[in-house]
Amino acid sequence: xxxxxxxxxxxxxxxxxxxxxxxxxxxxxxxxxxxxxxxxxxxxxxxxxxxxxxxxxxxxxxxxxxxxxxxxxxxxxxxxxxxxxxxxxxxxxxxxxxxxxxxxxxxxxxxxxxxxxxxxxxxxxxxxxxxxxxxxxxxxxxxxxxxxxxxxxxxxxxxxxxxxxxxxxxxxxxxxxxxxxxxxxxxxxxxxxxxxxxxxxxxxxxxxxxx
Length: 211
Fold this sequence. Notes:
Elements: H1 6-29, H2 52-72, H3 78-94, H4 107-127, H5 140-163, H6 168-194
C-alpha cells in the first residue's frame, strides 16, 4: 500500500494549528469585546470586523492545507479524497461571502459554510478501505466512528444556532477542531503502517556438546 509523503504530514498538522491560532489572534484584535464561547468564527471575518483579513487568510490557508492533505492521502479511497477537497473548497468560498456588518446572516455564507461542514464530516465515509494491511485510520469501523463523533458535535452546533443557548461559538470551534484533527490522525496512521518492520536475524543454533 502506498504511503503518505512528508508534506502530507506538514499540511495535516498545520491545519488545526492555523485554525486555532487564527481565531485566537483574530479575536484578540477586535476593538469590541468578543466572546469566543457565544460568538461564531464568522463574526471575525464579517464586514466591519477589525482586521477581518486575518481570519479570511486563515480560512484560505486551512483550505489549502486540506487540499494538500487530500493529495497526499494516497492510501485512502479516491472518493473520500475528492470529498475532502470539495469540503475544503467550500470553506474557501465562505471567505468570499462574509456576513454583513449589520448582522442578520447571509444566505450564501450559510450555504457554503454548510457544504464545508458536510464535506469535512462526510469524507471518512468515502475514504475507508478493507484488508489487513489497511491503516487503522482508514478501516470501516474507525471511519464510521469518526463520523458519528463529528455528527454529534455538528448537531450540538446546529442546536445552539436554533435555540440561542449562548454557546454557539464554543460548539462551532469544537466542530472545527474535530474536523481539522481527523485528517492528521489518518495521515499519522498511514505513516505508521508504511514503516518497514525491521526483523532481527535469528541467532544460529548452538552446536551440540561433543559427548
